[in-house]
Amino acid sequence: MASASDFAMTIPAELESSLRLKTVHHFVTQRPWLDLYGINVRPVAPFGSVSRKPYVDTALIHRCLPDELLFEVFARMSPYDLGKASCVCRKWKYTIRNPVFWRNACLKAWQLSGVVENYKILQSRYEGSWRKMWLLRPRIRIDGFYVSRNTYIRAGVAEWKITNPVHIVCYYRYMRFFPSGRFIYKNSSQKIKDVAKIMNFRAAKADCVFTGHYTLSEEKVEAAVLYPGLRPTVLRIRLRLRGTTAGANNRMDLLSLVTSGMNDNEVNGHHEDILGVVEGWQDDETHNPDVPAVSHKRGLTPFVFVPFEEVETSVLNLPVEKMDYYVPG
Fold it and tell me: 299 with 214: CB under 8 angstroms?
């Protein structure tokens, strides 16, 4: 009786390798379009087609607005607006990647460090990328306010012997920074939408808006503001800058808050550089015996950044009846 091996066909070696290759093609899917990932390829009509013409951008704004004018428009936008504009289309995205936009933004944000120092930091830490430096290097934002919302409970007057009422008191600390090394400080119970109108250097004395100086070293912020009067008092603030996302820089932790007295000679001689006077002081140091040094332990809620365009709609405007406590995150 014949076995199965007697009827087996002999397959040539060339045909066997071809069949094996064809079997592999069934398991490995070829995707040549993946090689074009990240390459901007313009659509081209088929070869020999009547409609084969030079490529024309279908977007009306790109046909009416030359690239030179588009560049000038982007050059006048803030870095945060540039980030939003880069999401419009692919052309805008690659145009906004131009390092000229980010170089100007970085030199303005860290102008206190100087141009030479900024270039050294750029090459040593951020591989020569201005955009990477903008996203990763800690910086103080100047397009809004830093707000600290604080609450505490105060005992009320007992009108009846049965009840003992309490009140939730809410107050804010406002700080607005400028790239020149100056900042504006205000401590008030007013909402941010009301305070935003007077947070400038033209504010009247009745508005209780005070100016000070600050320095930024990595993520640490040192600031000082002078309260003038019969007993001049300096407010020393130490902050730590951080962000909820990369490049946000929208939070500042309040590390210490110290008030100390100053003598008349220090106030009159160094009024324009109050931070230089108190630099190196200890927390318990005061130069006026009538004003002791006090290190405040309450009201140290972290600062939250609020852009100018969100002043009216910020949740920090809610009264204590609707938001008794706010978690900055």
Answer: no
In SS3 terms, 167-181 reads as: EEEEEEEEEEECCCC
What pLDDT, in 10s, does the model give residues 35-83? 655 555 555 555 555 455 555 555 666 667 777 888 888 888 888 888 8
pLDDT of residue 7: 46
Q: Which residues pair with 167 in a beta bridge?
A: 154
pLDDT of 33 over the 70 cut: no
Long-range CB pairs of 201-210, under 8 A, 24+ apart, other chains included: 209/184, 209/185, 210/184, 210/185, 210/186
Report which of 187, 245, 238 is spatially closest to residue 216, judged by C-alpha positions: 238
Whether pLDDT at 21 is above 80: no
> Within 10 Å of residue 162's Cβ, how many Cβ atoms?
6
Inter-CA distances, 239 with 95, 156, 236, Å: 36, 34, 10
Structure token digits, residue 81: 């607006």
Q: Which helix (H) or strand (E) holds 182?
A: strand 182-188
Helix (H) or strand (E) holding 75: helix 67-75
Torsion sign, CA atoms 285, 288, 289, 291: negative
In sequence order, the 6+-apart residues with CB closer than 8 A to the CB of 285 are: 260, 293
